[in-house]
Amino acid sequence: MAKKMAGGTRLKNAYNAEAAHRMPTKPISALSTDYPNAGIDTSAFSSGVTASALITYRVSYGGVNYVGACQTRQGAYPYSNQMALPSYSLAKTMFAGIVLMRLTQVYGSCVPSQLIRDWVSEANTSAWSGVTFQDTANMPTGNYSSSAFESDESGSGMTAFFDAEAHGRR
Predict the structure, then answer these.
(1) CA-to-CA distance for 59 and 65, rounded, in angstroms?
(2) Tell me: the pLDDT tens digits for 20-69?
(3) Which residue of 19, 30, 44, 132 sits 20 to 30 Å from the alpha carbon of 161, by its own alpha carbon?
(4) Alpha-carbon distance 154 to 158, whole Å?
(5) Beta strand 25-27 pairing with 64-67
């Protein structure tokens, strides 16, 4: 026999209230039917990414979260609208893209092609000579120590960067 949990009814009601206020979701394929005259090719959202490296992809538009398939190492995940995604890569991608969009909106379409080293004194080195704001949003800056998979991310230099609290040490 199952035991009742203290405050269980309150927790259940709180969860139901939170779930009822979530952004509605639809399969990514619904973009084509919801916007038939837009010519949307949903396969473009996942193009250029190896299937084994892609967990999921989503597009939020018109108050709806359009969700692509969710793959895990064990196969398809049936509850993709509830899948917790790692924040690190998602956050750095979203932040850079949103900032670049806002800067472009405020200062004009020339912003993405401007050189980082012209605006950030610490980047005024040969390693940053041709790197644009667009490059940083797409992440191909060319500034890495090793081209081996995850080598820089798990190396001592990255650990020192994350451990440093002061701007100058980073």
Answers:
(1) 6
(2) 998 898 999 999 999 999 988 888 887 777 777 777 888 888 999 998 88
(3) 132
(4) 7
(5) parallel
Q: Do the Cβ atoms of 70 and 76 come closer than 8 Å?
A: yes
How far is 86 from 73, CA to CA, in rounded Å?
15
pLDDT of residue 14: 94
Instruction: Give the bridge partners for 132, in sequence order.
Output: 115
Per-residue tokens: 166: 């002061």
Inter-residue contact 131 to 142 (CB < 8 Å) = yes
pTM reported for the whole predicted model: 0.54
By the 8 A CB rule, do 133 and 106 touch? no
CA distance 170 to 166: 7
User: How many Cα atoms are found within 13 Å in the side-chain-facing hemisphere of 49?
Assistant: 12
User: Comparing C-alpha atoms, which of 97, 134, 132 is closest to residue 118?
Assistant: 132
